[in-house]
Amino acid sequence: MRPTLGVCYYPEHWPEDRWQLDAAMMSQAGISYVRVGEFAWSRLEPNPGQMHFDWLERAMDVLGEHGLKVILGTPTATPPRWMLDKYPDMLALDVEGRPRGFGSRRHYCFSHQGYLEESRRITRILAERFAGHPALGGWQTDNEFGCHLTVVSYSRAALAEFRNWLRRRYGSIERLNQAWGNVFWSMEYSHFDQIGLPNLTVTEANPAHSLDFRRFSSDQVVRFNRAQVEILKSARPDLPVIHNFMGRFTEFDHFDVGADLDVAGWDSYPLGFLDQSDNPSGHKLAYLRQGDPDFQAMHHDIYRSVCGGRWWVMEQQPGPVNWAPHNPDPLAGMVRLWSWEAFAHGAEVVSYFRWRQFHSAQEQMHAGLLRPDGAPAPALDEATQVASELRKVGISETCARARAAIVFDYESEWAWQIQPHAKGFSHSAQVRAAYVALRKRGVDIDILPKHAKSFEGYDLVVIPALFAWNDNLLAALRSFKGQVLVGPRSGSKTGDFTIPDSLAPGLPPELLDARVLRVDSSDAGLRVPVEGGGTVGHWRERLEASCDVLMTDDEGEAVLIVQGNLHYLGSTGDAAFMQRVLDGLLERAGIAALDLPEGVRARSRDGCRIYVNYSARPATIALAADESGYVLGGPELPPAGVTVARLSMGG
Ligand code: GAL
């Protein structure tokens, strides 16, 4: 589908006589999709069974009259107050066992059977009522699963379901005891009903117990989403079902949820993300009004992968937000830049959150395309500009396939949260380090799930800090002729959270004949220089290897080894070190790097390459060897500037 724009709209917040004007303004700005309804349950069903759907139908009529397509959200992220009277035990419990109560949103436990039924019921009624509406263009399930850390719940409902989940996974209690190693500390169970949740233990719970609980919690989200998808799909098989995921949410496996969806949406708030991040303050100040130059892109690439290609930005920051510790105003032009960058990574739709700033309640300080008084805010002009540029440039419908790929795995994220061993060690941080080093060289990147069966078509694959190998990945490695970089800690566990008999990285000797003998973990501030530049620290493996050593640190420890095309990195390092490692891999893989000025990034769609300038200073780029001219902008990129170059070979 041709890239286009959308917006999130709450007709229930505004007088009905304003809707016509709003719809006319949206359509004039070049917007095509309007997402509605996802928080409207108290207006759709003010009392149990008392349905008030006429207002929503009228709102959809108005939007339709102006040629707009509606994405209708199921309202299950905000159960109305009466629901709690019906099911007082539907709330999630936090790790301390306290209920997460009414008065904001997402106050439900994914395991509560009664609420699951209510979610099915409201979805069914909505589907019956609106499936045939001419303005309907698709559905959204719920809103941001996992927002406000709401996936993991320590409720009685979760406990009962967890025991059943364990019964199905292990079949017998003996197998569970064996898999978890429960002989340790006399933790053996005689039957499944003795098993509790891994909170409120005296010291840390068994990591295998904790990981199974995280797997289970993720599966509960999959189940909840699937229940809605089945209803929506059977009502309108032809329309896409979308969920809006979020940045840096890793509590559930997005690939598993994505398998049931047509399109992965995600909500992009560059300035909020940067302010909330653990980046050094110098970096935060340099990019205060632009956002981190790689964070959005990495998530675009993750979400392009989550549903096998189709993805949208469902919510795009249009000005200051309200929820970060500080909420700066974006640099003029950034809303346009963020939109173009999303299209560069293959987005079908960029939809702004929200149409008009609301004067009341929690998000009253959150900007919209319109101000609270209904007049245009600066972002409306930028969105309008993007819509007209899209028409002018006419970018292709497909996104170029990358030559480099990185494996990203939610289970690895949970595993290292459960057992960091070096405080702060995380799978996603290792993914990010490799991603940033490649992207600074202008390399297009695909993200692959851990069950990828083949790496065919790629020239370089990076596998950072992977918890455990699986048969697919091993088969993909065996048949791959391109260059591979396996990052520290990969394969250091079996799927049962035990150390493999062959020791980490647990690869067959024909792939890599090397072992991790022990690990030296330290404060992230420790910096051991590496011969040739950069430093390592935080996580350093003592390697025993019969293959070639490519890099050694100043203490004589091997940090990068290679056997055939497989490189193994035994230490975590700083940005300069990672850049050296990845530059070496790019060279061996024959992938040409672009010469990009500080803060400038690039990504190709089929037929063109899109440059964006995240820096607060102007930058100049040169035409790359595979480019034949400019379609939008030129070699001079002002701060927040965008240039689109034509690729001579069709990408
Ligand atoms: C998102 C959420 C929206 C709104 C927005 C504010 O996380 O989906 O409903 O709260 O943040 O930035």
SS field, number of helical segments: 18
Main sheet specs: 8 strands, parallel, barrel
* Strand order, sheet with most strands: 1-2-3-4-5-6-7-8
Query: Could you tell me the mean pLDDT?
Result: 97
Number of strands: 25
The hetero molecules present are: beta-D-galactopyranose
Structural class: alpha/beta
Q: What percentage of the residues does DSSP assign to strands (E)?
A: 15-25%
Quote the distance from N terminus to C terminus.
19 Å
Parts with pLDDT < 50 across at least 5 consecutive residues: none
What is the strand and helix layout of this fold?
Elements lengths: L3 E5 L10 H11 L1 E6 L4 H4 L9 H12 L3 E5 L7 H6 L26 H18 L5 E5 L15 H15 L2 H8 L26 H29 L5 E6 L7 H5 L4 E6 L1 H7 L4 H6 L8 H12 L4 E6 L17 H11 L4 E4 L25 H16 L10 E4 L2 H9 L8 H13 L5 E4 L11 E4 L7 H9 L3 E4 L27 E8 L6 E2 L5 E11 L2 E5 L5 E6 L2 E4 L1 E3 L1 H15 L10 E6 L2 E6 L5 E2 L6 E6 L3 E2 L4 E6 L4
Parallel strand pairs: 1-2, 1-8, 2-3, 3-4, 4-5, 5-6, 6-7, 7-8, 9-10, 9-11, 11-12, 12-18
Antiparallel strand pairs: 13-15, 14-15, 15-19, 16-17, 17-18, 20-21, 21-25, 22-24, 23-25
Helix pairs in contact: 5-8, 6-8, 8-15, 13-14, 16-18
The protein binds beta-D-galactopyranose.
